[in-house]
Write a structure and sequence with these properties.
The structure is a homotetramer of 396-residue chains.
Chain A: E1 6-8, H1 17-23, H2 35-50, E2 56-61, H3 64-75, E3 81-86, H4 89-100, E4 104-109, H5 118-127, E5 133-139, E6 141-142, E7 147-148, H6 151-160, E8 166-170, E9 189-193, E10 204-209, H7 211-217, H8 229-236, H9 247-263, H10 265-286, E11 289-290, E12 302-306, H11 313-324, E13 326-330, E14 339-343, H12 350-366, H13 375-386, H14 389-394
Parallel strand pairs in A: 1-13, 3-4, 3-5, 5-8, 8-9
Antiparallel strand pairs in A: 2-10, 6-7, 9-10, 11-12, 12-14, 13-14
Helix pairs in contact in A: 1-9, 2-9, 5-6, 9-10, 10-12, 10-13, 11-12, 12-13
Chain lengths: 396, 396, 396, 396
């Protein structure tokens, strides 16, 4: 196909040129004497992204899924109980992992399109007088449905219940794109991955653990080795790693973190909100519904769009790819065929989104969904023209 | 600025990933024993792009301007007369070069927005009984005004006048994008550059000369050395060059030519026509005029769009760049401030153009030009949806 | 530092230009409809590298350490016994992992500089009448000491003892560089990584499992999720992955595997042997000893060189890096300070090794080790001149 | 061939990774509003490399040959006389160009292996009472023979003769590698190219002209257009170019100039001298002669080595390339078959040269030249070990 493909899945995201170049390097000795000059400041700056001062940051050669496993196995014992809610494919998978690893799950099933049920959590925790629940799991951004949950509120619910459980957050498709405050929100483990807000290829699990989580990892918790925090902590302290690190990703991560900090995290968040709002205006102009059940659940990193009854969202996706070279995200599991998703996170701007919105319009019309040509694009254009990232955020 | 910039000037064009990677190579010995295995087939395949069997292809480290000079100095004598028409900045510059190099120019000034005046040329040539005119200059695509001229008709006019002058064509922004037939049209020298239809960075003049032109270059024509055909011919025959060639561009050219031939030249031309027509539909939907005075002059590689009286096209361009990261082409000389240009040549597809059209819409509205939001995008969308490259071309 | 650094650690290895370019790509949709056209042939060709027809190949975003864990957790139960020998840092680490994951290790401690004690293994297995030993662990190439073990002989020992234990091989620094025959040698799980013979950056665990290993992974073996074979098998069968794969590494792997198969595995092995022998000739010319205790243990991918008593190998390494930009491998654990290592695996040729040997000579002399200047280089030169990869191998 | 090729021709030189990455960029609008922010400081910094304050720097898309032509055509009239000496293929070619462009050449033929005959020049200039000689041409580094001439002495000779001729210097293979002082030495035009000390691919002519040269370019000098200084001066002043500039090379040039200035020009020169001296020690150890007739002519950027009578240097070169992937420079014209050349300029260090010296040793022995294995390498090693760039230079 001539020209570039348009990548609008909610990860991997478009890698900025500067990050791409930073990764295009010859191999290097990961035990070189001067490596710590590179790694130690990188760890320090990553803490700024997580907004933690006391926490430890970990970089595992793995996907975010590996980070989920690291969180659980380092800090829990076989048979421990966790509290979790399911409202999309990714929250489901983490819960499934808990079960497979031998944990007991206190499960709250929620409607897909909603998020973490903080009030319900508060009730359950308050009722757990013996503190059998050792950890609360929260998916900050459910990528499958375009739903963003309120982690600060989750923490408040836990505090209101006066419950000592740990708080583990899946921030794979949120950290680095929307606000996240590890220390302030009392998050004990936060898991992210390289291929979303960090604007890198997949392959690096980027996560952080609180002092409390680190203490637990020293106790007799689950069997593990690859994802063990302790090995990492010891070698990371000297600027090295217990096994060969993926240096190209680390070199890219350095530039990616610089970009985030140079733009300013708050500006990054405002930009994501601004771009997301334009997409939502487009969807409204199309006369279609979001999968997210209300503004309180709107995700600023991915929008899941319901196709009209009788239409197959997968046809839209397949046609968009084959005819226009546009990659949209598919609906998964319960919402398969019902939604298509536009990822709008990472290194993105208005005109890039115009390709995505145009492509979605054309593909929908091609498969018989009767949206007005140009309507979504026009709505987004006007929003972008009349607002700017900061104003847009303040308006909410 | 986050995200990619949108490049829609009529050259340099977007370099395809495969071409970009082909140029990202360590330096190499340009006198290596095995270099001819690379260069000789490259020259052979370039002849296919020019559609010449007897001509010689030249690759000068230079811009297209250098090719203009090579054409003139290799084949003409000081004081020789050439016939040329001026209808845009680039046809003007070539004429200006003729004068500066000491040639006499029989000049036909045409309205900007029209192209080579073939009937007028026929008359002049018919009247030139003594054959004082040694060469006819024709700009196949006037990049400044988005005007495409009919080279086959130019040749017919010369033949009708039974005139032996040479035919030199500036194909910088046309060859490799719209039809060009060196042998069939009796073109003696054709000049192109790397940064347009060849989808490379600037820096390589790609040109071809007929047998007749080669004969002239052996005579006592103008003083020259760098752009001398003879030095090139001798060393190229063995697969080498008289001075250090720009190997990275040559490595990229190999892949670029492969792309053109793999897609098929006719398909490449049809695609350019198809994409161009969508842009013209957008302009019509905006209620604006093209600089080109009629369909017979429409360029398939660049569209020059007139802003309404009282508006400044340069404001559109500047705003589009500063606010949306979109590079549009400026009006030059006579049409400065009156037009902005969208380049649509090289490695391009529909969704990429949606960024350009959206950006132009937004920028125009921002500076007070009252186009309907989304109107151009919608018109282009519907054209692209309902047509395909081949159908679009057949319809014309 | 001007110029390139010289990388001669035994991994990461030098990435060939073609592989490097293959990884320098924009991100792509890992759920695209046409992805299986890429992934399925890749899996098929990887089986050729492992020389297995019935086995399954796995690609985990992880290091080789992750592969060790995958091997153990998928097929063994808590408390199961494995037979293993320790003769270097990497064999030690795998054994340590067994213990930490809750396995019992029947340990044979061997002198560092020797390898898998096949006769001793035979005895132990023969004595294990109740077949309590479930798996035999063998490190084909102990990277820490430059020792290569005989896996075919290990299999013969198991067969001689008529023991049904599984055979798991750490081939991280051997597969793709020296001969490995999964099916013929009855290997049940083979573990490798991207950053050695596969000539890629670190970040990908490349491993294969036999049908028997696959059957075990379906039983009630250890808790695991990230490294679970079953999830992989199901999604890989359709050309996809259970979580986001590291696409840039996969794109590079495609080219790396093409290189191995195009050169021919036997030629690759012969080349490694040829280059290794030149290095050994250099060491002999220096009058120094190898860490490997005899020719039967010589590794063709890394040579560990003993510095004379009273000298500190770490000084050589540090000085070589700081003064000459040369990365050598350090001695680890028991041999720390006693050896330095030259990695000679992956994409390498004679003249590249001349940099390494020269740098080692200069660094040794600089820190007071009295080798004759140029002596090692001369010995290697003469060997390389008078032999060729195939002859060299046949001579052994 | 596995592994990297070794490039030791005297240009193109090895491009540093940082420069290579800087060129690996998407195309950009060469008329963008913010381009002058990039170009104007680049021009300013290039003046530092030429050591000129009043001169103008020019960047033509061309090779150094184009710069020779620009020098002559901008400042001389048809029939003007220039004084030049011939002592190698490149000084010969510039003289040949003079003749072809219609200039008269007062030629001093010198033995190849010597350089600019300053005393002879003084005599000729002193005798030229009518000042018919308009320009003196001097090749600072004759790449074909490895001879460096003394430009300061050339200026002194001109001053001693009290002659007003211009001084034009071919610094293609010297500027950026060995000392050059445009203002101090009264150089009127200095010509260089991108592919030598500037560590870039070929394709950019980098040159500078004095105020006096600029004045001449405004007079009625030779016909020219592409290489006209005046067009460049006008557009460069605003940060733009008269025709499309090769932006990728300019982006690379920015980083290359930064490297030169960051290392410090004096350190760059000292490093070149240091590395060159090691090569000369190797040649001495081989018992071979340099083409340069004495230390006063030794070039610090390229060494031309005489093979013994009866041997064919081209066999060495061909064999080195085919068997070891080593590119050496060939002897040209008069010295064809008699010398091979090792380029040692640009981004280089000791261990890289060890590959070149080893490869030359092996290739010589393979074709029957009886040098002692390792002898040259050992001599260079010991020199490099016992000296450092600054000490080496001071010692001369």
């Amino acid at each position: 196909m001539p020209g570039v493909k348009s990548l609008f899945v909610p990860g991997p995201t478009n890698v900025p040129e500067s990050v791409r170049r930073a990764m295009d390097v010859p191999m290097e000795d990961h035990r070189a004497p001067d490596l710590p000059n590179f790694t130690l400041p990188l760890f320090a700056d990553l803490k700024k992204v997580f907004k933690t001062e006391c926490g430890k940051v970990f970089l595992f050669p793995a996907s975010g899924t590996g980070g989920w496993e690291a969180a659980l196995t380092n800090t829990l014992r076989l048979g421990d109980k966790v509290l979790a809610s399911r409202f999309g494919q990714f929250s489901h998978l983490w819960i499934d992992m808990c079960t497979r690893l031998g944990l007991e799950v206190e499960l709250v099933d929620c409607e897909w399109g909603t998020g973490v049920p903080t009030e319900k959590f508060r009730e359950i925790l308050a009722a757990d007088k013996n503190h059998e629940i050792k950890a609360v799991l929260a998916t900050q951004n459910e990528t499958a449905t375009g739903v963003q949950s309120d982690i600060a509120a989750t923490r408040r619910a836990m505090d209101a219940a006066n419950h000592p459980a740990m708080l583990y957050v899946d921030g794979v498709s949120s950290i680095g794109s929307v606000d996240f405050r590890m220390d302030e929100w009392g998050v004990d483990i936060a898991v992210s991955g390289s291929q979303k807000g960090f604007m890198l290829p997949a392959g690096l699990c980027i996560m952080a653990a609180s002092e409390r989580a680190m203490e637990l990892s020293g106790l007799d918790t689950m069997h593990r080795c690859y994802f063990d925090f302790k090995d990492m902590v010891v070698t990371n302290a000297t600027g090295y790693f217990p096994y060969t690190p993926p240096m190209t990703l680390l070199r890219g991560l350095r530039v990616a973190v610089d970009r985030l900090l140079d733009e300013g995290l708050d500006n990054v968040f405002a930009r994501h909100n601004f771009l997301a709002e334009g997409v939502r205006r487009a969807v409204a102009a199309w006369g279609l519904d979001l999968c997210a059940k209300g503004p309180e659940w709107y995700s600023d990193t991915v929008t899941a769009i319901m196709v009209p009854e009788g239409n197959d969202a997968n046809e839209v996706i397949k046609h968009a790819y084959n005819r226009y070279g546009l990659s949209l995200g598919a609906g998964l599991s319960v919402v398969a065929g019902k939604v298509f998703r536009i990822g709008h996170l990472g290194d993105l701007n208005e005109l890039m989104l115009m390709s995505a919105l145009s492509g979605a319009e054309m593909a929908m019309r091609d498969v018989g969904i009767d949206v007005v040509p140009g309507s979504g694009v026009a709505a987004a254009q006007e929003f972008y023209r009349q607002n700017s990232p900061k104003l847009a955020m303040a308006a909410e």
